[in-house]
Task: structure prediction
Amino acid sequence: MQKQKQVNYFGFGTNRDLEMMENMVGRKNIKGEHAKLLGYEITIQKANQFRTDVSPTSPVPNTSPKDLILKVWGPDFEMFTSRPNPKGVAYGTIWYLSPSEFELVREWEIVDFGCQEDAYGEAITDDGKKVRVITQSLLKPAEIDRVISGDDYEPYIWNKKTMLEQADRVRKEYLNMKSRLPLEKQQEINQFIENLIDKV
Result:
């Protein structure tokens, strides 16, 4: 039997936190390592800065990232994002996930809606190990409110309990939706995720 691929996912902001990842992917005791990601910086976006363009890959017709976020979280919501910066350093956690778990991360991060893009980089663990990772970032220009520097930032800038409950809900709804798709479509999604992972 072929061994399942491992995904080296770099989580920053709220995604650096174990509880969030457990609710997002539905598994306890996920292996992770504190690390810094080179070439990126962590940023915060406010509601008026969320992207308004509708992505061609949006699962819901005529729905932009801003439309979806405001519907779920309201107009006062702020969220962690990142953007490339050749001199930047983003602190977070490398999580070692399965492809299906990484798929759930992308759903939570509404990547297909165009909120951020899949991005790749090199992270360094506390013991100096270099790890190729995949994460999400604003690869296309976007307005931000502020940059988060250093390693001591608070991972929750919104109510923690509410975010954990929503992460759990999004996971269950997505898995239920996917299970009702034709097998051919499910396989197409799985192959897409595999292709992303192969680039790490």
In short: The first helix runs from residue 18 to 25. The helical segments are 18-25, 65-73, 99-108, 160-179, 183-198.
